[in-house]
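Service request form, structural biology core

Requester: graduate student, group of Dr. S.
Request type: structure prediction, single chain
Budget code: on file
Notes: please return the result as structure tokens.

Sequence provided:
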Amino acid sequence: MGLAEKRLAESIKVEKLPAFEAKLKERAGYDIKVDIDWNTFTAYDEYPLSRLEYVFDDVESFVKKICIDDMGKEALQDKISTIHLTNSENNDDVKVELKEDTLFLTVQLVQSSFSYQTDSQIASYVESLL
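Core staff response, request fulfilled:
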């Protein structure tokens, strides 16, 4: 990780991540911690970090889809307290998985193309487990 990646990661940690967690709390009605495996996003160059906002948008949208009413908010709160984001260079690793109270999202934001779960895919997966 070079200086540019370190600066961008720090900017996301200090500015964008707290704002993102505040949006999730507004949508869900409770605190959802977002845990990012920073080493998987900074091991390459700035590109994966610059694409993280797309993942944030889809995660916020999935929470909005689930939390359209009190029943959805309560169901989500019973199942998810943390969202863990990991980046992989291998497209085959892309997945969404709920273990205990953590939603694990593995995305592929490296290279010229990228792959991650859309808001609808995440919502469909989580909703089936609520």
